Amino acid sequence: MITRRVQYEVAGRLAGPALFRLEAWQQRVKKMRKGPRKSAIFGPPLECVSKLKELMGTHYLQGRYADGAVPVAWVTSGFPVEILRPLGFHAVYPENHAALCSVQRVVPELSDAVEKEGYARDLCSYARTDIGSVVTGKTPVGRLPKPDVLLCCTNICQTVLYWYRALAAHFNVPLVLMDTPFVYGEAKPHHRQYVRDQLEELVDVAERVGGKRVDPEELEEVVRVARDGTRLWGECLAASRAKPAPWTGIDGFFHIAPIVTLRGTRQCNAYYRMLLDELNDRVAKGIGGIVNERHRLLWDNLPIWFDVRGLSTLMAERGFNFVVTTYTNAWAEAGSRIDPADPIGSAVVAYTDIILNQDLNKRLDTMRRLSRDYSVDGAVLHSDRSCKPYSIGQIDLKQRLAKELDMRVLVLEADHGDPRAYAKEQGEGRLTAFMEGFS
Amino acid sequence: MSACVAIGIDVGSTTCKLVAVDAAGEILERRVEPTHPRIEQQAERLIAELRAKVGGAPPVGATGYGRKRVPQATRSLTEITCHAKGAFRLARRGGVLVDMGGQDTKVVRIGDAGEVRDFSMNDKCAAGTGRFLEVILGRLQVPMIEVGALAARAERPIAVSSTCTVFAESEVISLVAQGEPVEGIVKGLHHSLATRVASLAGALPDGAEIFMSGGVALNAAMVAALEAALRRKVRVLSEPQLVGALGAALSLS
């Protein structure tokens, strides 16, 4: 236990940062030798990306030594992770891990393994990827720590419940569910009470697994940090209201990792402060995420992780940038709802009233607001085969947006994780035709 | 003969189409042949043939799935844009264009200035496209040229699912085995396909004219089925197969 704890702390505090700083230094030397990489399409790369690599790389490196050192929870992206932080948990985000697998293009291999066990290809590719990774033991991050507890919140979809049940059966560990009723209009008091009761029970479970009580002051501090982090993330996104937007929507997808997986930690906030400074500096100097920003677009739904670079290039070549996405924005919305003075009560609201757990009118309102705030002249709605809750209603949303805001809207059929569910040629053809319509 | 100012080439999944147009956008020469796997060589040969016929070296505009394989092209645009340009030139007005090609079916809303206002297409699957008809008519051994007359003779359409080409093919085999008349099956196929296109078209604007282009527009049974499904008159554009190539040529002017 002590050895394990030492390894965990060394990985997180020394080895990880040293390793990734060395890599960043090597990259800098290489760049100095070759001269700065100049792109005719994209603006200069963000300087702080190397810090993002260090932050996330260290998180995963440290995770390899987490089990046996500290309590480990596997959690869904919409889970109130704040309550785990004062208890010293290491939180693993299977969704983030699956996205990483998709970027590394290992999803077909991992998915094949679970399809052989009888899981249907129609299931969410994140679920297939993670269960596949667990079954085969293969992961691009080296190793994921075995969980002591699985914590699942249904505010993003119902699939997570079945996915986590499969994980619970595999690891033979308890699964705790936080069920959030779908919100039509405004949540009713009994909805709030229902979620609150579960959250309070969750604190009890987490305390038992963590082996200590939650210190209210520590929790208040974590919640304050989480709130500030969420606000900082929102400010980073809001930098793209400037013309040209200082970064691309694709950059935003990659930069979402800290606010999802390290929410409530000081490292997360320190990173976003650095990013915000750089973005503000780019805005002041008029540096765009793409060189020739002619049209500004909104993206709806998760990214197509395995082809983000290809799609971004296709769009940027013609002067199109996704300056705002409903997905990255979802993590900024909670900033106004989290209240350190009432950690549990505000978590009930913040984690119930998220875009995926609210009716279509709320989504439409958000899209309208973002379209105006970011001065977009078109939108691409990714109809994501793997994410039905996010994709349902997009035909209606398309028609309403096109009519009410007089903008061009495209529904693009793809998948967030599995390249086998995406017809690249047809997809790019539709995007190209969509862009041709602007000229 | 007036001078050729541009050549348009539409490299589709089934056929390769070329037109040479004059300054008024009239088609002077045309070529249609099945698409070869070696698109570059085929395009080079056909462009050379057309240039020899019309004289000079008019610039080339390309469209279709193989458009990136035409190095001679000075401009390359998607089929959506080119079909809209071609249709607007032929119809001289905006409206709703249904283009049924070999690999996909598109519904394009064309504005009063000829601009693409919106479009929708079939999903990745071949159901709802020319290929769907080709596969199943091949199975029934019905030549494309006889389809219209055959379907017109049917007493009633026999329901055939259009969800998947492969499933529909086995469904048709069962229907034949059950002794259902071929005419009825053929009519049913068109009916099912037209329903699919109609759902793709969604709610049509009042008074908007419906145009049809693409190789499938040459099939009278399909036009009739589409008219029935949309409950609107469908105007087949002249030389419907060439509309995309015409648009590609016009894109250079």
Written account of the structure:
The complex is a heterodimer of chains A (439) and B (253). With 439 residues, chain A is of the alpha/beta class. Chain A has one domain. In chain A, 55% of the residues lie in helices and 10% in strands. Chain A has helices spanning 2-34, 49-63, 94-103, 107-116, 125-136, 159-171, 189-210, 216-238, 249-255, 257-261, 266-285, 308-316, 326-333, 343-352, 360-373, 388-391, 394-405, 424-436, and strands at 72-75, 90-92, 149-153, 175-178, 295-300, 320-325, 378-384, 408-414. Chain A has a 4-stranded parallel β-sheet with strand order 2-1-3-4, with helices on both faces. In chain A, α12 links the parallel β5 and β6 (320-325). Chain A is globular. The model of chain A has no long low-confidence stretch (mean pLDDT 95). With 253 residues, chain B is an alpha/beta fold. Chain B has a domain at 4-83 and 243-250: Nucleotidyltransferase, domain 5 (2-Layer Sandwich), CATH 3.30.420. Helix content of chain B is 39%, strand content 23%. In chain B, the strands form 2 sheets. A 5-stranded mixed β-sheet of chain B has the order 3-2-1-4-5. Chain B has a 5-stranded mixed β-sheet with strand order 8-7-6-9-10, sandwiched between helices. In chain B, α7 links the parallel β9 and β10. In chain B, α2 (79-91) packs across α8 (243-250). Chain B is globular. The relative contact order of chain B is 0.19. The mean pLDDT of chain B is 90. Chains A and B meet through β8 and α18 of A and α2 and β8 of B.
Task: Map the helices and strands.
The complex is a heterodimer of chains A (439) and B (253).
Chain A: H1 2-34, H2 49-63, E1 72-75, E2 90-92, H3 94-103, H4 107-116, H5 125-136, E3 149-153, H6 159-171, E4 175-178, H7 189-210, H8 216-238, H9 249-255, H10 257-261, H11 266-285, E5 295-300, H12 308-316, E6 320-325, H13 326-333, H14 343-352, H15 360-373, E7 378-384, H16 388-391, H17 394-405, E8 408-414, H18 424-436
Helix pairs in contact in A: 1-2, 3-5, 4-5, 5-6, 7-14, 8-11, 8-13, 15-17
Chain B: E1 4-11, E2 15-22, E3 27-34, H1 39-54, E4 60-63, E5 73-76, H2 79-91, E6 95-100, E7 105-110, E8 116-121, H3 130-140, H4 147-153, H5 165-177, H6 182-201, E9 210-213, H7 220-230, E10 234-236, H8 243-250
Parallel strand pairs in B: 1-4, 4-5, 6-9, 9-10
Antiparallel strand pairs in B: 1-2, 2-3, 6-7, 7-8
Helix pairs in contact in B: 2-8, 3-5, 4-6, 6-7
